[in-house]
Specification:
Structural class: mainly alpha
Distance between the termini: 52 Å
Oligomer: single chain
CATH topology: Globin-like
Number of strands: 0
Order of helices and strands: HHHHHHH
CATH class: Mainly Alpha
């Protein structure tokens, strides 16, 4: 008998855990004076719902993400490499806040890091 391999989405606690991490993540980003300006014209409730779907899919959960590609969603925002790295740092911090093990945090970073060329413009 073969056991099903749990996805990272399942291992982290499914949708409730992803929602908590996304909420903490945006709290950190919006409290960062260098990053909050990127979201000044953003409907944050909608953004968080969108991000929960994207992160869930990226971690092997249900694919309910129907948004724009990373490249299209970030085009024209002038996001720099240091700002991408700061956002990634806030994601790591939110995962640590949620009690996620370092090995699993590393796995999340492996999913996020390849998105950098599609997000960074400057």
């Amino acid at each position: 008998m073969t056991q099903a391999v749990a996805t990272l989405f399942d291992k982290l606690g499914g949708k409730p855990a992803v929602e908590a991490v996304v909420k903490e993540f945006y709290k950190r980003v919006l409290n960062d004076s260098e990053l909050k300006g990127y979201f000044s014209n953003t409907d944050m409730d909608k953004q968080m719902q969108h991000q929960v779907k994207f992160v869930s899919m990226a971690l092997g959960g249900p694919n309910q993400y129907t948004g724009r590609s990373m490249k299209k969603a970030h085009s024209g925002l002038g996001i720099t490499s240091p700002h991408f790295d700061m956002v990634a740092g806030h994601l790591v911090g939110a995962l640590q806040w949620a009690g996620v093990e370092q090995g699993d945090i590393d796995s999340v970073v492996e999913v996020v890091a390849p998105l950098k060329p599609d997000v960074v413009e400057a």
